[in-house]
Design goal:
Layout: H1 2-39, E1 51-56, H2 64-72, E2 80-86, H3 93-103, E3 108-113, H4 122-130, E4 138-141, E5 146-147, H5 152-160, E6 165-169, E7 172-176, H6 180-202, E8 214-217, H7 218-223, H8 236-246, E9 250-253, E10 258-262, H9 267-284, H10 286-291, H11 297-304, H12 309-334, H13 344-357, E11 363-366, E12 369-373, E13 379-381
Helix pairs in contact: 1-6, 1-11, 1-12, 2-3, 6-12, 6-13, 11-12
């Protein structure tokens, strides 16, 4: 029995080491893809399209004023409406929007305060309340924690103009806005999510549609049922992309990077956020999510250490070198040092633990609301927890 168990343990160790090596190869390929996609973006010409920027807001999160201001500073010759929405008259984001109006008096910045509930997803309820106030034919949805550069609109509009394109989205890196744990969260976006999203999109392995940016024409939004069609969907960005694709139109990732401001002030907030994200992806694309373990070569090598110390140690060293190079590349491309490079082993091990933990999640936290996960990525609100 001992001999048989020893053989099984040895096989498990070699399997983990082999997966780690495969993950290191993937990391190198993802890094090369990331570099080529963003290093030479095509020039975007001058545009005059009328654009409505939709910003669903909830609270005065760190850097909200600067995030919103970045959308008001665009190299765009056409009319732009920034449409901001909150669901409570006491929401502190209102003061931020009013200050933004004073800072940019020449910009059209509209604020809608509407508490009307729609479905289980509070963010989508906000978007539904904003939809009747859209003024222009091009609609750009983006989360409140996103910051962009001045070439954002020209790049997005150029991509939306391509034949057969129904929507345009952007990948993003992270920026820690609330201390150490927010920087660890940000590094997960820059060092793990960003290379994977670009690699999957460029090779046709994934069809991402991300809340950082969803640009589409008003007619397309109407054809997919408007925002009301997603009232009970947790991953509304993913669902919008799938609905656009169902029309026979493509969802393209444009060659521009934006930055997501992470606001997790402590480990608990980070854990809840990443579990929600992982569980959501697991519910939507379980096979692809399971295969994503290949993108975690360092934890896999560490698990192999007790079985084959020398071989696993070499695998861990190779993984560290490859992951470190990709992390530095991602930070250079985004222009933000998401976290100190010494935090990479911590970040990678945390990613692996979240991956394992997400398989047992049946309900998630969204800004104080507890949402029960249903089939096909839909959610329902637990009745004892208010959504406001």
């Amino acid at each position: 029995m001992t001999g048989a168990m020893g053989q099984i343990a040895a096989m498990v160790g070699w399997a983990l080491a082999g997966l780690s090596l495969a993950g290191t190869l993937y990391t190198v390929l993802a890094g090369v893809t990331l570099y080529h996609f963003y290093s030479h973006p095509p020039p975007a010409g001058a545009r005059r399209d009328g654009v409505t920027l939709i910003k669903p807001l909830h609270g005065a999160e760190p850097q909200l004023a600067d995030n919103l201001a970045s959308f008001a500073i665009q190299h765009h010759a056409g009319p732009v409406q920034m449409l901001c929405g909150v669901q409570r008259a006491s929401d502190p984001a209102i003061a931020v929007v009013e200050a933004l109006k004073e800072r940019f008096p020449a910009r059209r910045i509209d604020l809608v305060v509407d508490a009307t509930p729609h479905g289980a997803n509070p963010k989508v309820a906000n978007l539904i309340n904003l939809e009747p106030h859209i003024a222009h034919d091009v609609v750009v949805l983006s989360d409140s924690d996103i910051a962009v550069g001045p070439e954002y609109l020209p790049t997005v509009l150029a991509a939306l103009d391509r034949a057969g394109t129904g929507a345009v989205t952007l990948a993003y890196g992270g920026r820690g806005d609330a201390g150490f744990w927010s920087r660890i969260a940000a590094s997960g976006l820059s060092w793990q999510f960003l290379p994977g999203a670009v690699f999957g999109a460029r090779l046709g392995l994934a069809r991402p549609c991300m809340g950082s940016t969803i640009a589409l024409r008003r007619e397309t939004l109407a054809r997919i049922g408007g925002m009301r069609a997603f009232a009970d969907v947790l991953a509304d960005d993913f669902a919008i992309g799938e609905a656009v694709a169902a029309l026979g139109l493509s969802v393209d990732v444009a060659p521009a990077l934006v930055v997501h401001g992470s606001t997790e002030a402590d480990f608990g907030a980070l854990w809840r956020h990443e579990l929600r994200w992982g569980a959501t992806v697991r519910a939507l694309v379980p096979t692809a999510y399971a295969l994503g373990v290949i993108a975690m070569p360092l934890p896999l090598a560490l698990l192999a250490l007790p079985f084959h110390p020398l071989a696993a140690g070499c695998c861990a060293a190779l993984a560290l070198i490859a992951r470190g190079a990709v992390a530095r590349l991602a930070d250079r491309l985004t222009g933000v040092r998401s976290a100190p490079i010494w935090a990479l082993p911590l970040r990678d091990c945390l990613t692996f633990v979240v991956f394992l933990g997400s398989w047992g999640v049946r309900s998630v936290d969204w800004r104080g609301a507890t949402l029960r996960m249903e089939s096909e990525g839909r959610v329902s609100a637990l009745p004892e927890v208010p959504l406001t």
